[in-house]
Amino acid sequence: MKKRVTLTFPKRTIQMPVTYRLAKDFNVAANIIRAQVAPNQIGTLVVELSGDIDELDAAIEWMRSQDINVSLLGREILIDEERCVDCGLCTGVCPTQALTLDPESFKLNFMRSRCIVCEQCIPTCPVQAISTNL
Fold this sequence. Notes:
Blueprint: E1 2-9, H1 18-26, E2 29-36, E3 43-50, H2 53-65, E4 69-72, E5 77-79, E6 99-101, E7 108-110, H3 121-124, E8 130-132
Antiparallel strand pairs: 1-3, 1-4, 2-3, 5-8, 6-7
Helix pairs in contact: 1-2
């Protein structure tokens, strides 16, 4: 099973090797999608956790016991088709190729199942046709 979560670390736990502990203690893989971590500051990680449902729940409970705020993500990328001009700039920054241009019609295609909600496409869009649902 997979769960996408946002982890917010208080300043005092920023040095904790969380992804190592998830793998070693809970057999949970953590794919880091986005990270904003700096010494002596609040840190934020967007990760996709993979593992057995019971192990995932135990890992999330452990992180919460360490004062790490864990919030499940239900975010999605939204594309306003009326605003989109099919320029293709977003396709160049999409790491999973969820955004592509049709080679015949030159229309933007969005494969939601490939999207990891990294949000790199949002600032790239010159007409601000891309956003998230939250």
